[in-house]
Design goal:
With 331 residues, the protein is an alpha/beta fold. The chain folds into two domains: 2-120, Rossmann fold (3-Layer(aba) Sandwich), CATH 3.40.50.720; 122-286 and 316-330, Dihydrodipicolinate Reductase, domain 2. It is built from nine helices and 15 strands. The strands form two sheets. The protein has a nine-stranded mixed β-sheet with strand order 14-13-12-11-7-10-9-8-15. Strands 3-2-1-4-5-6 form a six-stranded parallel β-sheet, with helices on both faces. It holds the Pfam family GFO_IDH_MocA_C3.
């Protein structure tokens, strides 16, 4: 497959997508849109053009594929323009900022259908795939509690770059844990179709990090999940402060427990009597490669369903619900 490629944004995730695309397809021309029109810090074997405005790039070129890796508030407006032009879109998370944007995206995609992929990579890990199989195969009984958590130290995310200036630390650019660490909400929807009912939220801006948006969120709720009438006690913990990174999911049922450690890449199964560990090791870039291949296959077969959009909108709905319930504390 030969592709003329548009990339909006040129941070670490954009560079990863470009490098992975190079492994899977023949790039004939790369066009990058970034705030500065300065030359890129990576050399490529194909022609590269840099613009500082998306409309300028779209006026000068046609494209086979586009990656929207810009700050979160720009995702929906840029996607609307790309849908209109019939360009397949890979959209980094979160999909949008409001339900109004969500409905506009669905309407635009209905009138201008294109292949779409949303950048929630955890759904493409071996751990997630094995976990989903085990949830279907094992008898955990009635699930009574789901605990999901992630903690990562923000200054470690982008070594060599001041974290204070990155999008994750700036509310105006879509920062804060609810949006930047929304992978947990995405996989809870993917695994359980989770819907939060009685919700309590504590969002905190701890002063140990220089940022104007929440760097910790604790969410407690009673939730409904697919395939079960009984409600589930649910705890979601998100933070940008933990010096030792963690990412775990614990599913507790009346007949057993299942624990996914996404960093150790293990699944622990306990049936009330004994436990066993299933290893789901893979090289860290493999989920991104897998996700890219799925997107390219969708383009090759021109699969224009709106499932990815609806998943992203479901995540945004949860984020908005949580924000409406929160008590925010500035430490």
């Amino acid at each position: 497959m030969t592709l003329k490629v548009l990339v909006s944004g040129y941070g670490n995730i954009a560079k990863r997508h470009i490098n992975n695309l190079m492994l899977l397809a023949d790039i004939t021309h790369l066009v990058v849109v970034r705030r500065s029109a300065a030359q890129l810090d990576q050399q490529y074997s194909f022609p590269v053009t840099v613009y500082s405005a998306l409309d300028e790039a779209l006026s000068a070129h046609t494209f086979d594929i586009a990656f929207v890796c810009s700050p979160a508030p720009q995702h929906a407006p840029q996607a609307l323009r790309l849908f209109e032009l019939g360009i397949p879109c890979f959209l980094e998370k979160p999909l949008c900022q409001t339900q109004q944007q969500a409905q506009a995206l669905l309407a635009q995609h209905k009138h201008h259908p294109v292949p779409v992929m949303l950048g929630y990579d955890l759904r493409f890990t071996q751990g997630y795939a094995q976990l989903k199989r085990l949830l279907q195969q094992l008898n955990l009984g009635t699930i009574w509690r789901i605990s999901a958590g992630v903690g990562q130290y923000l200054p470690d995310w982008r070594p060599g770059k001041p974290y204070q200036s990155c999008v994750s630390a700036r509310k105006s650019l879509g920062g804060g844990v609810l949006r930047e660490l929304s992978h947990e909400l995405d996989y809870l929807i993917g695994l359980f179709g989770i819907k939060l009912n009685k919700v309590g939220v504590l969002k905190t801006v701890h002063p140990s990090l220089e940022m104007d948006c929440e760097n910790e969120a604790q969410i407690l709720a009673m939730a409904t999940i697919d395939g079960q009438q009984e409600q589930v006690s649910t705890h979601v913990s998100l933070d940008m402060l933990s010096r030792k990174a963690f990412r775990t999911l614990k599913v507790s049922g009346t007949e057993g427990e299942l624990v996914w450690d996404a960093i150790a890449q293990t699944l622990l199964i306990h049936n009330g009597v004994e436990e066993r560990i299933v290893e789901v090791f893979e090289e860290g870039n493999q989920p991104y490669i897998r996700m890219m291949q799925v997107f390219l296959d969708k383009i090759a077969h021109w699969q224009c369903d709106d499932a990815e959009l609806r998943q992203g909108i479901a995540v945004q709905s949860l984020i908005e619900q949580i924000e409406q319930e929160d008590v925010q504390i500035h430490g």
